[in-house]
Amino acid sequence: xxxxxxxxxxxxxxxxxxxxxxxxxxxxxxxxxxxxxxxxxxxxxxxxxxxxxxxxxxxxxxxxxxxxxxxxxxxxxxxxxxxxxxxxxxxxxxxxxxxxxxxxxxxxxxxxxxxxxxxxxxxxxxxxxxxxxxxxxxxxxxxxxxxxxxxxxxxxxxxxxxxxxxxxxxxxxxxxxxxxxxxxxxxxxxxxxxxxxxxxxxxxxxxxxxxxxxxxxxxxxxxxxxxxxxxxxxxxxxxxxxxxxxxxxxxxxxxxxxxxxxxxxxxxxxxxxxxxxxxxxxxxxxxxxxxxxxxxxxxxxxxxxxxxxxxxxxxxxxxxxxxxxxxxxxxxxxxxxxxxxxxxxxxxxxxxxxxxxxxxxxxxxxxxxxxxxxxxxxxxxxxxxxxxxxxxxxxxxxxxxxxxxxxxxxxxxxxxxxxxxxxxxxxxxxxxxxxxxxxxxxxxxxxxxxxxxxxxxxxxxxxxxxxxxxxxxxxxxxxxxxxxxxxxxxxxxxxxxxxxxxxxxxxxxxxxxxxxxxxxxxxxxxxxxxxxxxxxxxxxxxxxxxxxxxxxxxxxxxxxxxxxxxxxxxxxxxxxxxxxxxxxxxxxxxxxxxxxxxxxxxxxxxxxxxxxxxxxxxxxxxxxxxxxxxxxxxxxxxxxxxxxxxxxxxxxxxxxxxxxxxxxxxxxxxxxxxxxxxxxxxxxxxxxxxxxxxxxxxxxxxxxxxxxxxxxxxxxxxxxxxxxxxxxxxxxxxxxxxxxxxxxxxxxxxxxxxxxxxxxxxxxxxxxxxxxxxxxxxxxxxxxxxxxxxxxxxxxxxxxxxxxxxxxxxxxxxxxxxxxxxxxxxxxxxxxxxxxxxxxxxxxxxxxxxxxxxxxxxxxxxxxxxxxxxxxxxxxxxxxxxxxxxxxxxxxxxxxxxxxxxxxxxxxxxxxxxxxxxxxxxxxxxxxxxxxxxxxxxxxxxxxxxxxxxxxxxxxxxxxxxxxxxxxxxxxxxxxxxxxxxxxxxxxxxxxxxxxxxxxxxxxxxxxxxxxxxxxxxxxxxxxxxxxxxxxxxxxxxxxxxxxxxxxxxxxxxxxxxxxxxxxxxxxxxxxxxxxxxxxxxxxxxxxxxxxxxxxxxxxxxxxxxxxxxxxxxxxxxxxxxxxxxxxxxxxxxxxxxxxxxxxxxxxxxxxxxxxxxxxxxxxxxxxxxxxxxxxxxxxxxxxxxxxxxxxxxxxxxxxxxxxxxxxxxxxxxxxxxxxxxxxxxxxxxxxxxxxxxxxxxxxxxxxxxxxxxxxxxxxxxxxxxxxxxxxxxxxxxxxxxxxxxxxxxxxxxxxxxxxxxxxxxxxxxxxxxxxxxxxxxxxxxxxxxxxxxxxxxxxxxxxxxxxxxxxxxxxxxxxxxxxxxxxxxxxxxxxxxxxxxxxxxxxxxxxxxxxxxxxxxxxxxxxxxxxxxxxxxxxxxxxxxxxxxxxxxxxxxxxxxxxxxxxxxxxxxxxxxxxxxxxxxxxxxxxxxxxxxxxxxxxxxxxxxxxxxxxxxxxxxxxxxxxxxxxxxxxxxxxxxxxxxxxxxxxxxxxxxxxxxxxxxxxxxxxxxxxxxxxxxxxxxxxxxxxxxxxxxxxxxxxxxxxxxxxxxxxxxx
Length: 1599
Ligand SMILES: NC(=O)c1ccc[n+]([C@@H]2O[C@H](COP(=O)([O-])OP(=O)(O)OC[C@H]3O[C@@H](n4cnc5c(N)ncnc54)[C@H](O)[C@@H]3O)[C@@H](O)[C@H]2O)c1
Ligand SMILES: [Zn+2]
Fold this sequence. Notes:
Shape: globular
Distance between the termini: 104 Å
Strand order of the largest sheet: 49-48-47-46-45-44-43-50
Strand content: 15-25%
Number of helices: 53
Number of strands: 64
Helix content: 25-40%
Largest sheet: 8 strands, parallel
Structural class: alpha/beta
Oligomer: single chain
Low-confidence stretches: 856-867, 1026-1036
Bound molecules: ligand 1, zinc ion
């Protein structure tokens, strides 16, 4: 057999680590010969087994065959891959296997696999038979360089990772790098994070080879080594050598450290670099994001902490960043791989710090972090204690600048290298001959991708000197090769790099060794929209083959390697000077000398072209710009000779002049002095003129030499405005000038900067909008802006500046913040040109900066927002005249018990003239001003318990709009009453009391509509319906009134319309309405809603009639959706669940219409929809935004897995749950069942998460028929279907009734018995009533009569039986039953009688059941009255003075009756009753119609005496004589209720028929029904199915 060459590394003084390639035979031989045993057990996972188990088995068997003496056994065990195996169960499995196979103390265990196998098997070995020998054979890079070395073994528990384990050293660690050839490349990168880490803390040389040779290292694992190549040194390729040296290098460091400090007491801490923060991130993102990926981000953040502490330079952070990126590792939390995850929402500063608190390295409460001092060395020989504030500052998204005078005054500093010069220098040095040392190179995104790309093209080699301060470029003289197949040059959003590299790539020459035939350059999504067309067109015209891969005119490009032809090139240069520079830089390498002609008129940014030409000259190539011989004028034609650049030995990159404007401006604004070392009059950059041309004019003293600039500012507050300044030659510096002008005395006009509208953002707009927050006024001009300066004292404080992801906006506002303070959101956007700006601001200038966690800002904001407004805060109504503000306002006020205020009336009182007259006298403008003042007064005076209705035109002035917006944002609801505009037109056509518009109403509406929606936080759709001929509003239907009451109680928070069952912990259900048009549901709405607690409106299924015919995706319009909700609300009082499901979630909404989804969800919140379903896959910002506006509504945070891959006992579901809990009031997780077992797993999951304190309600469902069981078991808001629906919303959906059956059958809904106690009761309709309801809802209960002469043992037995569900009580026991009860409701207490017994489960200390007595008679009476009469009751009459009369009085009192006449045959009894209700304003009558003369006759009459006790026959004695004047009331609706149950038409009701037609009659049966419905709901928690029940009861009654 071929010889095997291994490299041995010693650890703990033993050479036990053996490294090489294709080691399996070697492993078998070594193990069998040096670790003699009776049994060898190899444990691996299925992934690794697939690739390598056979070979192990064969080699071990073969080798065993060669052994002398008794043959040992070779056993193997294959387990599931993945972290879940690393558990107690996983360990027990292996142990059982070993025990079953009678393994003994001499067993040798081989762990073949990644870190999971190594940790788990190692721990088994540590405890099996008190410890057996074991061997590590790591197969992932992570396991090779990290987990297998050091002897740490462990398993996970639900409490955390690696919490139980042991130190147990393996006998051998065999590192076979050939295993890496089968490893997925993401896993390889995962391991590289640890390799980079080790080099970073220990060995700069190693780090250098990692940073420069990533392409080769990747190549080594991606090229399979045939025929065991590499096993012997002779057969090893260079790539293999490199790979092995990287691994060995890394292992050696770790082995060394472990040897010195095996138990991690100090030095071994160091290998935790990046891990303190990395682990915290991992805790949140595992298992989606791998350990190494989290550590990679952790290293950068920890590197930044050390930079912040002034220990590590930006160079170090930059190199680390670049190196990790080269191995495809994420370096920030905003990396799309991380940021796109819903779990990323939990990466808040507080949460991360909280997790870090329990880090094993900590001593006490202090956190420890490994602090780098430079690449290859750490600050201490152990982790360093770091304060929370420092960590928090680095982790925060935003920075707060604390105002003050720079403490390092006078400041002297250099700014980072210029971005433009850095990029040009990189290209030049790479293309040149010889070696160049670049100093002061900018370490930023742009230069990083540029270097990475040049590296990939093998165009040059890069290395570092002076700890990275100097970049050594060995030029490739223009030789460039095609990157290997599949490798694209990824440029992120680096514009300069993209433009320069496009031409550079045309220089690539093909070679026979290439496996790819084009070079592809690409970028991120934004980059893919930025233009590159003119440059590509020019190059194509010159003969280069360049193809657009996606959209025309943008990246990605595929460029053929055929060299640049040269000669004449024409280029349109009006968009970007970078196109010109790109061609200029490469032109010397074209086949023929180039003549570059710029076309298209105005050439943009000539200074940058001049800069390129000047730099080319430094590198030895002189460009000739032609002049017109006739005029001597310069032409836009350049001649570039054919040549090779020659590298100067050293090239000093000038500091960035735009960056320099910030420290200089800080000197100017704070009255201090600042010197910038590296920029002076000789600068190539236009922005170098900023000091002289702007700062000096503003009153600073400026001293400039060729290479330095010093600025001394005037005393604070004394900057002068410059009347007008043209900044065309230094456009980037205009932002700096703008913030200074904001505090200068006078107006400053800044011109010549129109191009700044198309930079990273529209910078002119950005400055205007952000300055406005500080209270600074500006005027936008065509090519600039005017700033009206304001004294610093008058600026607004505590402003949070949004930066539009633009570095210059961020830095400019940090200048302003040095005098006023301010929070700069998105602090990281400075990374583009000055990554350590915030550190330099503090460490070099001496202005304090704090970290701010935006997550907490937004929760603060929502705390002051409408979400938590005071429930008593007044409501403001806005909307077109004629939209029904007055009508809605009055009803809302009466429902809330508040006062309604009309702004117009208020106006008339104040100005003593009506609105119409005022406009006539003073004109519209004056009226609007006066109106705004009224608004302000109203908002200030009527802060609580008012409904304020405003004039339609209030939104016409911005002052009023601002007031409204502020009110909506911070104080209370502003509701836009919206009514279809054609109804408004029709209505206004006949109304004249207010001033005419003088323009068409529809025009007015069009103009105001956006203002209304901008000012309101709620919208109420008011469909008043018919307009009657007389022009008055038709009396709104009861539906509308109920809707108004519900809506306003909900949005104010007085009584949110949420499901009671959900709140009280009963099972709850909703019905999914799957209609395209909800009005189709209305005829059946009562049946459809049987049993359920809410109605789900599936918005994705809605189709307006005009869309019926269309095929394909339809997105219903907002107005249609709003209409549908209004329709549904008038038909049903149930809360609505608003759901938009996309196709991917099993719905019908297009998957890519995220914007439309968000708009609809916002609409739902505005309409006060009670429950809004939000997919957690939406962007965090949008969810936060919705959540901050939700008010009383609740969010259902939902996640759907349709793949069937999600396991309820797997990690994914937990991750989703945690995310959903983060913002949802209710969590919804939907999976798919493949078998019944999936339902049990679901149930266990729910039980476990619900057992936590304060757990949020969860809807957990499995789709599919196999998942039906989960629909039975689900507790909260189970989605249901109904046989009457057009189709089911989801497969496997059951009806409410089916679920009740099912619950009963599995024992979760036992039968209960209900009774009627009374005598005589044989003819009672109550059994029909309740049993019909039970039947309709599928409840297994039974209601029966218990006729008895007294409250005896049978009654007592019935009510204490465990299956007692409740009872009705009637004559004669309504009082007798009271002693048996534990408690009475307030109503029963006051009425002094009980007609309902409700068993209630108590959760108090003694968990048990109590019996509660209630009286629902009064509710029945009240319901019958309000059904028919809603206007105020001026007077009512009650006949009788028994128990039912008490209920009647109680009901009337609750209805606010102003006067109650009481009439009874025995007057003393009536007087006694009146005395019992002292607040009810009762007047006892001697004769039935004897109310005082001139007073209002009763509009409500309730008789509580038997029919036989009344008569219309004056002959009849011993009965109360009823006469016609009982019904004298004529001024509106009136009701007479006869509680007598038989006959159907009592004398009282009969007489009413002959009275006016304003009288409605209510027979006793109706009251019985109403009070029965209430009883039913009290017992079962379910609404009684009224229609069916009433029908059955009426039939029974009349038969
Ligand atoms: N003990 C320590 O000091 C230490 C240090 C770091 C990490 N760890 C632990 O290591 C574990 C992670 O280890 P990991 O990253 O190796 O993960 P892993 O063991 O889960 O392996 C990653 C994946 O790659 C597969 N795989 C492994 N080798 C392969 C090969 N050669 N070809 C194809 N597929 C292959 C595996 O089946 C698995 O699916 C974690 O549990 C972590 O806690 C321990
Ligand atoms: Zn690690």
